């Protein structure tokens, strides 16, 4: 985590959910775009059995989540909360995902973005339960289809993507799903996403 956050800082990338130090964690993640302030928080259900030796290493989903979201919401126009949770490879969210997303929304989140299932899950109101894989292509087709969301406060669009490369390796890259015909049935996947996601699915953003 220290190396990852260090690399992102060197490249001027915003990160949240894991921090280099307690001081780093205390700095709100806020950007301004077109005169609108947008803040970000990230939380995880757990760490795959690894001990959290210091609190700043991982922001866990716990009873402090609502207070943290409310504090961010008081400082920004738009509060975005990212939640690492859910059942791996499940096409639909579980009760814990729905309850945690509702807690974040009740506390002031304007948009909730989920991850961890490794497959695309539905968009429901201001909650996208899982964007699927993006930097972690696996073995089965559903784990190679992910996407990039574009959100406004009058709607959302979703551009499906496909991870090209050997499973569980660093030798891969991401392409728009519509350009992945040599790897899978693009028309079937686009039709499935149109039907399941309850949002406009587009070839490109």
Index terms:
six-stranded mixed sheet; CW_Biosynth-Accessory; 10 strands; 6 helices; single chain; CapA family protein; 2 domains; alpha/beta; Metallo-depent_PP-like; globular; 205 residues; four-stranded mixed sheet; Capsule_synth_CapA
Mind sketching the topology for me?
Layout: H1 2-10, H2 22-26, E1 29-33, E2 36-44, H3 65-73, E3 78-84, H4 95-107, E4 111-115, E5 120-124, E6 127-131, H5 141-144, E7 145-152, E8 155-164, E9 173-176, H6 186-197, E10 200-201
Parallel strand pairs: 2-3, 3-4, 4-6, 8-10
Antiparallel strand pairs: 1-2, 5-6, 7-8, 8-9
Helix pairs in contact: 3-4
What does this structure look like?
The chain has 205 residues and is α/β, with parallel strands linked by helices. It has two domains: 1-132, no CATH class; 135-204, no CATH class. Helices cover 25% and strands 29% of the residues. The chain has helices at residues 2-10, 22-26, 65-73, 95-107, 141-144, 186-197, and strands at residues 29-33, 36-44, 78-84, 111-115, 120-124, 127-131, 145-152, 155-164, 173-176, 200-201. The strands form two sheets. A six-stranded mixed sheet has the order 1-2-3-4-6-5. Helix 3 packs parallel to helix 4. The chain is globular, with a radius of gyration of 17 Å. The protein starts with a helix and ends with a strand. 29% of the residues are buried. The model has no long low-confidence stretch (mean pLDDT 90). Residues 1-138 form the Capsule synthesis protein CapA domain. Belongs to the CapA family. This is CapA family protein.
């Amino acid at each position: 985590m220290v190396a990852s956050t260090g690399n992102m800082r060197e490249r001027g990338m915003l990160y949240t959910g894991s921090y280099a130090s307690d001081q780093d964690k205390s700095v709100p993640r806020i950007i301004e775009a077109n005169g609108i302030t947008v803040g970000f928080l990230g939380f995880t259900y757990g760490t795959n059995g690894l001990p959290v030796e210091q609190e700043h290493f991982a922001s866990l989903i716990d009873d402090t989540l609502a207070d943290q979201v409310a504090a961010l919401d008081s400082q920004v126009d738009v509060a975005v909360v990212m939640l690492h949770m859910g059942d791996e490879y499940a096409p639909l969210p579980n009760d814990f995902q729905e309850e945690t997303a509702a807690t974040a929304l009740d506390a002031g989140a304007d948009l909730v973005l989920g991850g961890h299932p490794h497959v695309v899950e539905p968009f429901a109101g201001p909650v996208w339960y899982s964007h699927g894989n993006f930097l972690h292509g696996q073995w089965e087709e559903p784990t190679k289809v992910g996407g990039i969301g574009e959100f406004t406060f009058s709607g959302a669009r979703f551009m499906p993507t496909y991870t090209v490369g050997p499973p569980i390796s660093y030798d891969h890259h991401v392409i728009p799903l519509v350009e992945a015909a040599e790897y899978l049935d693009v028309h079937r996947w686009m039709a499935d996403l149109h039907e399941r996601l309850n949002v406009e699915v587009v070839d490109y953003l």
